[in-house]
Amino acid sequence: MTQPTFNHWRPHPWHGIEVGPDAPTIVHAYIEITSSDLVKYEIDKTTGYLRVDRPHRTSSLPPTLYGFIPQTYCAERVCKLMGPEATSGDHDPLDICVISEHLIQRSEVLLNARVVGGLPMLDGGEADDKIVAVLENDRVWSEVRDISELPTSMIDRLRHYFETYKVLPGEVSNVAVGEPYGYEHAATVVNAAMEDYRVIFGDKE
Asked: Among residues 69, 165, 166, 170, which is most buried (max CB within 10 A)?
């Protein structure tokens, strides 16, 4: 009988967890925020613990689970995919929104997600793509292979959330969210973020 492997110490969610079992199609997603969170939580890059970043400024709540793909980084290669409008990547792990039939109310969980597309987003000129995925073994959504198979209203909610979640009435937003892209381009973005990570941090595999 093969002895199961395990980590003696808690791995860092960004650096100590593999990118996924079949990236760029099936990736790991580390969840920072659920759709019921009124506070923006974000991984502390030094310790790996979840840190309170800020309370949401508006009543808008994220319509899906929200987190990042481990061992990814948004730098030069991700920036180039955005085009000349982007001045740089946002120097963070690649963000991911995960759709699930059931309400998952706990953050700081790890799950397998099937990449189906994404939203191109510029935040203050920085490339800040939002990968869209479905929970791999979800009873309702797991057969989805491309963002075009999702309800338009679901993508509209995601776009509206990211366009408005930082802005109070009367303020001017510095966030621009473009038209959604499908799986093929999303896979290219994930691969670019994986390569940006390897260049900056080295290959952890």
From this structure: 69
